[in-house]
């Protein structure tokens, strides 16, 4: 072995020397850069469906692009066709359009030229001057007509079912195991004399999942107040914290137990994501809640929370619309509300006819989407040419 | 009246911003941007309440000598020190305090955050162990597909059989994506329904008390 060491050292020395010294390069023969063909058919027009001050420039790719001689395209703008053009943007090869988002004025003519830049930027050619174009602001986004129609249709379906519910028509709602277990979970905590932990997600109030979680909190708080079970609601967002506090307070008052409300039961922990996770883990380890609710928007901390809860032996009900976190909750929790079930929870728990009507409307809308998907699939299979048309009408701008 | 005013505000703003979504004009965009700034202002007020809650929560723990109450002392001291360093560090002539604030953030808080995040790897392993126990047909299916995907993303998989990465990609792109999109449809409708319920005043749980 000792005999091999000098040899190894020599190899190492040679290797490090090879890395340290620059590789010998062959001299490059400078070739004069050939002029590239200009981009044909340069057209300019108002960018559709925007707030103005934007013009879209389009062109055909330079014939030299296919030969690998083009590096990109510079877009130039001028106020007159003969005037001085100045650079407003650059796009690499492969792109044939550019949105000039910094047009100085609306309703004024602007002209464009496209400079085809050759490899090494040494060679370039200018295109012909485009047609005059004016930027204008629009008052209706035509690319969102499909969204408007869908919203109106969905609202109509929901209104129909709300009207039916108002008339007293009984509406069948499928059983959602996670929501059916809420009563049992609260009861378990009561029997064990331990608190209920409710985490309304980590997102802000602008997240619909957070609003859904707060709606459910109202129902859970009412049950906790009825059973006189302590409730712990740690929060990450200050606005969510204030709303959650008000919800819990009102829930206690509504069931006639305002005296049982503990102002400290809804509290703010921290804004830090992992700090919040460790704080909640600490609560679970110390207070040993019998029931944990993780409802709302969660990110990477979902598994940290759910696994700690599982280790403490708590019954856990989770729900989120964050698809990437669902597998973690499904693995570590007893019940998981998947996606839309989170939004249906408030209606399911309150059993109010009006809310159940919206839930029923939601289910029928889903059935309609499934029907449209199948119809679209069948049409695309029978007439393959319609595929692009179907995709176009579904795209929201 | 206490409930009527928020409901009127929600109904009005709900309709206004529904319409705003379809109007791309500059005025419409400006209104939206201004409202987003309001949200920041409201959040600033809420932070004061949140800090009050934090102090109150930990003071109570200390007063009542709850389990591990000494941690609350550490929390309060840390909060006070960081707040003071953050504020005083911006004062001219006291820049060294600002430097200390950054040092504490970079070398104390950030590593603690990272350590917590790193624990996730162990939790993933234990959760995967539970999920991959083939106790039912569904769990067995999950185990098999999980195994194929794991093999598909490591070089060893393609060494075993060159088709494994393709099968793994097919599982991710076809059955997995189909399930994801199905959930997303439901989520989209659920979001719209929740918004509609709140705007129309059908859902009032957010006002407190569960919708009455």
Characterization of the model:
The complex is a heterodimer of chains A (397) and B (212). Chain A is α/β, with parallel strands linked by helices. Chain A has helices spanning 4-20, 145-166, 177-192, 208-227, 238-254, 273-287, 301-311, 326-332, 340-350, 353-382, 387-394; strands at residues 43-46, 55-58, 70-78, 86-92, 97-100, 111-118, 124-126, 196-199, 231-235, 266-268, 291-295, 315-320, 335-338. In chain A, helix 6 packs parallel to helix 7 and helix 9 (340-350) runs antiparallel to helix 10. Chain B is extended and about 65 Å long. Chain B has a domain at 132-212. Chain B has helices at 4-20, 26-63, 70-88, 95-131, 137-152, 155-160, 164-199. In chain B, helix 2 packs across helix 3. Chains A and B meet through helix 2, helix 4, helix 5, strand 10 and helix 6 of A and helix 2, helix 4 and helix 7 of B.
Radius of gyration of chain B: 26 Å
Which regions of chain A contain 5 or more consecutive residues with pLDDT less than 50?
10-32
Name the overall outline of chain B. extended
Instruction: Kindly report the CATH topology of the domain at 171-351 in chain A.
Output: Rossmann fold
Structural class of chain B, please? mainly alpha
Task: Using the CA coordinates, give the radius of gyration of chain A.
Answer: 32 Å
Please give the order of strands in the largest beta sheet of chain A.
10-9-8-11-12-13
Helical residues, percent of chain B: over 70%
CATH class of the domain at 171-351 in chain A: Alpha Beta
User: What is the CATH-assigned architecture of the domain at 171-351 in chain A?
Assistant: 3-Layer(aba) Sandwich
Instruction: Report the β-strand fraction of chain B as a percent range.
Output: under 5%
Name the largest protein-protein interface in this structure: A-B, 89 and 66 residues
Brief digest:
Chain A is built from eleven helices and 13 strands. With 397 residues, chain A is an alpha/beta fold. The N and C termini of chain A lie far apart (71 Å).
């Amino acid at each position: 072995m000792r005999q091999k060491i000098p040899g190894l050292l020599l190899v190492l020395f040679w290797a490090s020397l090879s890395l340290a010294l620059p590789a010998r390069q062959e001299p490059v023969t400078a070739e004069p850069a050939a002029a590239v063909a200009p981009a044909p058919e340069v057209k300019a027009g108002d960018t559709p469906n925007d707030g103005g001050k934007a013009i879209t420039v389009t062109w055909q790719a330079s014939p030299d692009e296919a030969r690998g001689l083009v590096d990109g395209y510079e877009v130039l703008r001028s106020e007159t066709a003969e005037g001085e053009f100045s650079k407003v943007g650059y796009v690499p090869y492969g792109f044939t359009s550019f949105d000039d988002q910094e047009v100085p004025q609306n309703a004024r003519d602007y002209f464009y030229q496209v400079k085809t830049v050759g490899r090494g930027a040494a060679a370039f050619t200018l295109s012909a001057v485009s047609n005059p174009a004016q930027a204008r602001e629009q008052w209706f986004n035509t690319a969102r007509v499909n969204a408007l129609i869908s919203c109106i249709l969905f609202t109509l379906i929901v209104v129909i079912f709300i009207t039916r519910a108002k008339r007293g028509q009984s509406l069948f709602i499928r059983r959602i195991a996670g929501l059916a277990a809420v009563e049992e979970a609260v009861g378990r905590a009561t029997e064990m004399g331990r608190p209920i932990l409710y985490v309304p997600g980590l997102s802000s109030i602008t997240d619909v999942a957070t609003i859904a979680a707060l709606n459910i909190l109202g129902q859970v708080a009412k049950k906790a107040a009825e059973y006189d079970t302590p409730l712990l609601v740690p929060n990450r967002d200050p606005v969510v914290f204030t709303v959650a506090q008000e919800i819990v307070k009102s829930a206690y008052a509504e069931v006639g137990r305002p005296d049982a409300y503990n102002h400290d039961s809804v509290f703010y922990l921290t804004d830090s994501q992992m700090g919040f996770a460790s704080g909640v883990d600490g609560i679970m380890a110390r207070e040993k809640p019998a029931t944990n609710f993780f409802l709302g928007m969660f990110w990477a901390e979902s598994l940290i929370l759910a696994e700690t809860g599982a280790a403490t032996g708590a019954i856990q009900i989770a729900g989120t619309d964050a698809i990437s976190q669902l597998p973690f909750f499904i693995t570590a929790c007893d019940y998981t509300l998947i996606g839309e079930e989170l939004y249906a929870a408030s209606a399911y728990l309150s059993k109010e006819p009006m809310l159940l009507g919206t839930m029923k409307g939601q289910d029928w809308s889903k059935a309609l989407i499934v029907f449209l998907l199948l119809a679209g699939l069948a049409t695309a299979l029978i007439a393959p040419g319609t595929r692009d048309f179907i995709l176009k009408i579904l795209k929201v701008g | 009246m206490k409930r009527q005013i928020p409901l009127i505000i929600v109904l009005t703003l709900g309709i206004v911003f529904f319409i705003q979504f379809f109007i791309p004009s500059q005025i419409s965009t400006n209104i939206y941007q201004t409202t987003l700034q309001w949200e920041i202002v409201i959040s600033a007020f809420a932070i004061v309440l949140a800090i009050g809650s934090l102090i109150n929560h930990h003071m109570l723990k200390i007063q009542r000598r709850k389990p591990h109450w000494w941690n609350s002392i550490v929390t309060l001291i840390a909060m006070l020190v960081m707040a003071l360093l953050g504020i005083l560090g911006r004062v001219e002539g006291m820049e060294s305090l600002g430097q200390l604030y950054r040092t504490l953030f970079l070398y104390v808080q950030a590593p603690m955050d990272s350590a917590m995040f790193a624990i996730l790897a162990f939790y993933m392993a234990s959760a995967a162990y539970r999920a991959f126990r083939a106790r039912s047909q569904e769990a067995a299916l999950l185990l098999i597909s999980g195994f194929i995907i794991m093999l598909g993303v490591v070089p060893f998989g393609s060494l075993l059989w060159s088709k494994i990465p393709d099968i793994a990609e097919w599982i991710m792109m076809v059955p997995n994506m189909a399930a994801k999109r199905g959930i997303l449809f439901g989520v989209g409708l659920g979001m719209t329904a929740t918004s509609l319920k709140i705007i129309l005043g059908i859902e009032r749980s957010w006002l407190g008390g569960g919708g009455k």
